[in-house]
Amino acid sequence: MGAAATGIGIGAGGLDLLMPMHLRLDPSGAISGCGPTLRKLFPEPPLGRPFFHLFEVCRPAGIETTSALSARSGTRLHLAARNGSGVCLRGVVTPLHDGRGLLLNLSFGISVLEAVRRHGLTNGDFAATDLTVELLYLVEAKTAVTEELHRLNRRLEQARRAAEEEALTDELTGLRNRRALDQALEAAILTRQPFGLMHLDLDFFKEVNDSFGHAAGDHVLRSVAQVLARETRSGDTVARIGGDEFMMIFPGVADAERLRKVARRMIAEVDKPILFEGRPCRVAASIGMTLSVLHDPPEPARILADADAALYAAKRAGRGVAVMRQVGGRRPAGAQPGP
Fold first, then answer.
1. CATH superfamily, with its number, for domain 12-129
2. How much is the average pLDDT of 42-57?
3. Which residues are identified as catalytic?
């Protein structure tokens, strides 16, 4: 015959270590002991309070007294806290030695992750042998990997956008480049909204390069770019398309006189001396213009060709002027000199 089971003594500290979510009930059903992790679930200490005031046994059904609970020794229990916290627990109950009450060992079950987040629990809140500890390690590792992947994706997205921006930006002036201009023109046509187009070329720019050097020429180009940026709106496209040539798209503009006013301001500003190392550099601007409403339907190649033809007409008219090109190769409208 096997040896009879004998009782063992274990202090409250030992129970806290081995079962940090235990409850001890006295014979009347009042809570006489509570593990440290379980105490974190309650705003007020549960000691001395009736077990059934704090917990409901959901399964098995019909357990509403201490004796009924004791009769279910060894049975898996499903409990819910009555404090409205939504805490659900799993556990098992066993009688204490010599009829001194009951001992329940509880756990969070599948709701452990929610409990960890809600109550700020850590590995130290669980027994070292609890598989929850391993689960938390896995969750922490997964979270760390996920966060790193998110950071990597953000860096890749930022790098992609930076590369796209760089591919559409003129390195010298910071304006849009020819590729960006072509994209903006296609987009403007697709919107079916009117727009104006300017083609600006600097006069006497070669003389600046020949007299003062290419550093002076670069300085002049940057200064002209600043003028064009100031004289246009945030939604306009201002591009350096090569050398000393610039193009601008003005969404929503269908009035030739409105475009002429902008051109006159640009010509007047570009005509002002640009200082480079204390020496004045003088250039002028010739501008060719057209409107999308003059084209039916507007086509990129035709619009660009008309603006280019208007630019050459401006240069033939004496330079430092703006010319509006009519559709279909008609003669340009009268030259508009700067004031």
1. Haem NO binding associated domain (3.30.450.260)
2. 90
3. 244
